[in-house]
Amino acid sequence: MSKRIGTEVSLAVAEAVRLCNPDVVSAYPITPQTHIVEELSHYVANDELDAAFIPVESEHSAMSAALGSSATGARTYTATSAQGLALMHEILFIAPAMRLPVVMTIANRAMSGPISIWNDHSDIMSERDVGWIQIFCENGQEAFDLSICAFKIAEDKRVLLPMGVNLDGFMLSHMIEPIEVMDQAEVDKFLPDYHPQLILDPSDPVTMGPVGVPEVYLEAKVQYEQALLNSRPVVKEVLADWAKHTGREYKVVERNGKPDAKILYVTMGSLGESVMSAVDSLVEQGEDVGQVRLRLWRPFPEQEFMDAVAGADKLIVIDRALSPGGVCGPVATEIKSLFYGRDDAPEINNVIAGIGGRDVSVNEFQDIYALSKAGGIKENYLTWGVKSNA
Predict the structure, then answer these.
(1) CATH architecture, domain defined by 253-383
(2) Domain boundaries along the sequence of the chain
(3) Residue 207's pLDDT is what?
(4) Do domains 3-246 and 253-383 have the same CATH topology?
(5) Residue 349 contacts residue 382 (beta carbons within 8 Å)
(6) What is the CATH number that goes with domain 3-246?
(7) Which of 114, 136, 158, 299 is least enclosed, having the fewest CB within 10 Å?
(8) Residue 332 · residue 382 · CB < 8 Å
(9) Per-residue confidence at 378, pLDDT binned at 50, 70, 90?
(10) Is 355:110 a contact under the CB 8 Å cutoff?
(11) Is the bond into 113 cis (omega within 30 degrees of 0)?
């Protein structure tokens, strides 16, 4: 039976993973995700989780161990942040190519330099094209819920792809929130046992991960890109199934604020809740404003997003990462590409905000709206909060 507890979000994620009964947890500590794998190590040591806990010497090894265990048919989990995710980079591409449904939590953190342990999305945006399903959480309840959903999505026979669950480091990972925690029986009803489709077995040898000569490389890439695109309806199906089990509904794209608003914020991650408060206040003041919240990042929910922004004259896209040398932030780039050549394209104002853990208040989001409404954002993007003497 579910119970509501006040707990650190990282510990709630660890509890969600425990309830999914992984066979292998490969772990290397890096702030701000360390509390997750640390708690899982306690579960294993205390016989509360029957799993192999593999402490490795680096994040590169953590992902390598995860792929090796997944290839033998084990339900596999790991977690990382920032430089650790970057160190995994070359291995991340292999998981979708081999159709290994590893689940990983990414406690999003700014990339060096300068050295920063605080939050933004520069780590995951550097990995947006690795072929993983990628989803973002706004709060602790979502982090708990989507961690469980991730195993069901990744392991679905129609998918068989790795999945990353993104939660903002410190701003979310280290917050203490009231969270509805399910019991084992409830999770078991939702998440079926994992039945791998192709495994390394000495008694039935197969080749996995061979060289891709030019005659087959392109076909292999197209195959798993198509698998990623085909995962979109499965993601929606699993989220709908979760709603039936728990009453907590999540959509790949959600909209709030004034129903027919002509100016819409676009957000992804925990800052979306601050923007919600700003939007509520602005609507009370009679402003024509709403918000579209992206939850699924890869595969990008193109149709759902276009439906959500239909009729808008202006989009204020909040990016949590710079794209140095590019024309705008990563999320704004994605959205601008959707409207290329369309007569009904809204004006897109890109605001880079919350970089390196910089706080952005509800009042500041209202100021951003006022500036955008007045036509004060003319360049490709506005970097919010830059100090004059920086």
Answers:
(1) 3-Layer(aba) Sandwich (3.40)
(2) 3-246, 253-383
(3) 87
(4) yes
(5) yes
(6) 3.40.50.970
(7) 114
(8) no
(9) confident
(10) yes
(11) yes
